Amino acid sequence: MDIIRSLSIFILAGLCEIGGGYLIWLWLKEGKPLWYGIIGAIILIGYGIVATWQTANFGRVYATYGGVFIVLALLWAWKIDGFKPDK
Questions:
Q1: Which of 4, 12, 14, 54 has the highest count of CB atoms within 10 angstroms of its CB?
Q2: For residue 63, is pLDDT > 90?
Q3: How many CB atoms within 10 Å of residue 4?
Q4: Which of the four pLDDT bands, split at 50, 70 and 90, describes residue 49?
Q5: Is residue 39 exposed (0-12), middle (13-18) or buried (19+ Cβ within 10 Å)?
Q6: Positive or negative CA dihedral for 14, 16, 17, 19?
Q7: pTM for the whole thing?
């Protein structure tokens, strides 16, 4: 059960980090309204909080999260941003 809980926290943290950053990107780079940036900043704060829900020590958790983040970022780019992965 601890593995499922930990993996769920990793996924939620990744979605908060990527989603918040994406909203700020849209605001600054794509000319979206200011509220995109504000919501993005709030979501990024949520990422900082969600990451603390892990029970293991910070270094080990953060190293593992790096791998999860890469997978989530590629999936986000593919499904949300329209990036087409190739070989």
A1: 14
A2: no
A3: 8
A4: very high
A5: middle
A6: positive
A7: 0.86
Band (pLDDT 50/70/90 cuts) for residue 41 is very high
53 Cβ partners below 8 Å, 6+ apart? Answer: 9
DSSP state for residue 1 in the 8-state scheme: -
The DSSP code sequence of 22-87 is HHHHHHHHS---HHHHHHHHHHHHHHHHHHTT--S-HHHHHHHHHHHHHHHHHHHHHHTS------
Question: CB-side exposure of 49: number of CA atoms within 13 Å?
Answer: 6
